[in-house]
TrEMBL record:
This is Methionine aminopeptidase. HAMAP family: MetAP_1 (MF_01974). Its cofactor is Co(2+); Zn(2+); Mn(2+); Fe(2+). Monomer. It holds the Pfam family Peptidase_M24. GO terms for molecular function: initiator methionyl aminopeptidase activity; metal ion binding; metalloaminopeptidase activity. A divalent metal cation 1 binds at D106, D117, E250. Keywords: Aminopeptidase, Hydrolase, Metal-binding, Protease. A divalent metal cation 2 binds at D117, H186, E219, E250. NCBIfam families: met_pdase_I (TIGR00500). It comes from Microlunatus elymi. GO terms for cellular component: cytosol.
Length: 285
């Protein structure tokens, strides 16, 4: 049975297991799309790869038709494919990838009404070092944020850990990374976006308490310049105002009585959490 505390959805063990199934579909889709990324491939082709994986698993895409209303068309893609200065919500189409591009791939799937959501950033061919370091920094910030989650802690403990990790990595970078604060992580479960928000910066010890059954999508977005964004005419794609390149990494996770369980990682997050000295705590696989 699901309970709601201050609009926060608390999942049962069985519901988390279904979310794990959805998370594994997402993980498979991201690997399949990543493996097709190369110079000369269109973003529409990559969208088709994600659709094939999700459909063949008997799942449904979380993103296709998302946000549809009488006055607005829903999102037209199975996944978000955001290239270079596109931060999030890029739409697959006739854009052809070229050597040196960075592409962020954001994917969601639904299994029996329960969602999984994750994103990766992939290098196309030979990428400039500063772009590679940007993606690595974003990925590292995500894992440090996830690792900061503890039962009895607060949601913004994650936010503070992301920001602290970015600050630490900037020491070896020519200029500060931009932390995009206009888009945030979120609760997830029977809907893709739920309370609470999970900001990518801020003070610890705020927001809802982390308790068993709470599931969160942790997703930092960093830029090589300013973090300000604007929407393109398609009404979805968010790009940096200054044209700087962006990166985006995301995982869906929960905290059990045994430790942290990353629902969209094939190994549940075990290897990354071990490297950070954090307990891995799956309920089931």
């Amino acid at each position: 049975m699901r309970l709601r505390r201050r609009r926060v959805e608390i999942k049962s063990v069985d519901e988390l297991v279904l979310m794990r199934r959805a998370g594994l579909v997402v993980a498979d889709a991201l690997v399949a799309v990543r493996d097709r990324v190369r110079s000369g491939v269109t973003t529409a082709e990559l969208n088709g790869v994600a659709a094939e994986v999700i459909n063949s698993a008997g799942a449904r895409p979380s993103f296709l038709g998302y946000g549809e209303s009488p006055t607005r068309q829903g999102f037209p893609g199975v996944c978000c494919l955001s290239v270079n200065d596109e931060i999030v919500h890029g739409i697959g189409g006739d854009r052809v990838l070229a050597d040196g591009d960075l592409i962020s791939i954001d994917c969601g799937a639904i299994v029996e009404g329960w969602h999984g959501d994750a994103a990766i950033t992939v290098e196309v061919g030979a990428v400039a070092a500063e772009r590679r370091h940007l993606s690595q920094a974003t990925r590292s910030a995500m894992w440090h944020g996830i690792a900061a989650a503890r039962l009895g802690g607060r949601v913004t403990d994650i936010s503070a850990a992301i920001e602290a990790r970015v600050d630490a990595l900037e020491v070896d970078h020519e200029r500060p990374y931009g932390i995009v604060e206009g888009f945030v992580g979120h609760g997830i479960g029977s809907a893709m976006h739920q309370e609470p928000d999970v900001p990518n910066a801020g003070r610890p010890g705020r927001g809802p308490k982390i308790i068993p059954g709470l599931a969160l999508a942790v997703e930092p977005m960093l830029t090589l310049g300013e973090p300000d964004h604007r929407l393109l005419g398609d009404g979805w794609t968010a790009v940096t105002v200054d044209g700087s390149v962006a990166a985006h990494w995301e995982h869906t996770m929960t905290v059990t009585e045994h430790g942290i369980w990353v629902l969209t990682a094939h190994d549940g997050g075990e290897s990354e959490l071990a490297a950070l000295g954090v307990r891995f705590g799956p309920l089931a696989n």
